[in-house]
Amino acid sequence: MDSLIKLFVCFYVFLFTSLLFAEINGVEGSDKNHRLYGFRPTKLFVFGDSYADTGNIKKSLSSSWKFPYGITFPGKPAGRFSDGRVATDFLAKFVGIKSPIPYFWKNYAGKKRLQHGMNFAYGGTGVFNTQAPLPNMTTQIDFFQNILTAGDIYNIPSNLISSVALVSVAGNDYSTFISQNRPASDFPAFIKQVVDQTEVNLRRLHALGVEKVAVPLLQPLGCLPGITFASSFQRCNETQNALVRLHNSLLQQAVIKLNNEIKKSTFIILDLYNAFLTVFNNKGANPGSTTFQSPLKPCCVGVSSEYNCGSVDEKGVKKYMICDDPKSAFFWDGSHPTEEGWRSVYSVLHQSLTASFMKA
Fold it and tell me: Where is the signal peptide (predicted)?
């Protein structure tokens, strides 16, 4: 507990000194709802981790290709870290296009299908190296740039005028930092490194010609089931959430600076932090957002601490339990929302997203 308090204080001292592959049926929007004052997105490019990955990570590396992942959509495991659709699919729906094909499957998709964009996100990755041999954010953007340079799929810059990018990083850099047993005193400087490199990545995407870039804030990590199991999924860890707010504050500052420099509202903040909390606290007052009776409790959970969702023993016997109805749960597993969870989050974000896309 003392170390947590020290880390908490350290973060706030730092804050003070910083000055303050699947075709998506039924997830396509209509053209008339997405013209947004002349800006009609036609392509979505995605970079990030498991919150955005729709099938890039290899089967041998991930439980997302094991049952019961994908039971809601597409009805079988397909590489999404959920029972169904994830953040990428819902942002694609919002902008009115098909969810983009994963980079790993690009050679199996026709050129016409690739015109909707491409998803470069890999579950488990971060801004920096987290899990070898997974490509970090910089390498993912390298993949994107190489495709643009080749010119056989996208003709730049004309093809990117109506493009949107999603840059999703959900905390793997920080879990990696903690797993390395580095001293807590190094954490503030590491947070700044993560945000600074994110800013470099955002500048690079804009320089490549992407018109709009959606940048999610970190979700309340202290509310993830992997943390709240300690309270029988009853309470969030507020110390961890306070630390997340530091990351989000610095990231917001970076985005404001970038928009001021280029004199345009190119970079859009997606406030996942408050959207998650709004859904958790919904008592029916927020239209479109499901009221979850136990929002911190996952639908799919290992039978003991040594097992995860999708785990089986050497005889193939399941070592996990699954709830009766995934639609009744916000979280699918220890850290990822269900399809219904993501739908509710994007219902909360809809108004602010619309306003942000209207800005020139």
Answer: 1-29
Catalytic residue among 64, 333, 335, 344: 333
Q: Which domains does the chain have, with CATH numbers?
A: 2-278+346-358 (3.40.50)
* CA angle at 257 for the pair 122 and 265, rounded to the nearest 5°: 75
Q: What is the pLDDT of residues 329-355, one digit of tens each?
A: 999 999 999 999 999 999 999 999 988
Measured CA to CA in angstroms, residue 343 lies from 84, 347, 352 at distances of: 10, 6, 15
In the block, tokens 């917001």 appear at 252
Task: Give the dihedral sign, CA 5/128/342/337.
Answer: negative
β-bridge partners, 311: none
- pLDDT tens digits for range 220-239: 999 999 999 999 999 999 98
pLDDT tens per residue, range 291-309? 999 999 999 998 887 789 9
Given the residues 99, 336, 344, 347, the one annotated as active site:
336
Query: Catalytic residue at 152?
Result: no
Q: SS3 string of 161-186?
A: CCEEEEEECCCHHHHHHHHCCCCHHH
Contact 109, 47 (CB under 8 A): no
336 is catalytic: yes
Q: Is 173 a catalytic residue?
A: no
Helices 2-17 & 187-207 angle (0-180, nearest 10): 50
How far is the C-alpha of 72 from the C-alpha of 68, rounded, in Å?
Answer: 9
pLDDT at 185 over 50: yes
What pLDDT does residue 158 have?
A: 75
Distance of alpha carbon 60 from alpha carbon 79, whole angstroms = 11
Instruction: Spot the catalytic one: 50, 289, 335, 347.
Output: 50
Contact in structure between 184 and 191 (CB atoms under 8 Å)? no
> How far is it, in rounded angstroms, from Cα 122 to Cα 286?
32
Listed residue (307, 340, 331, 341) closest to 63, CA to CA: 307
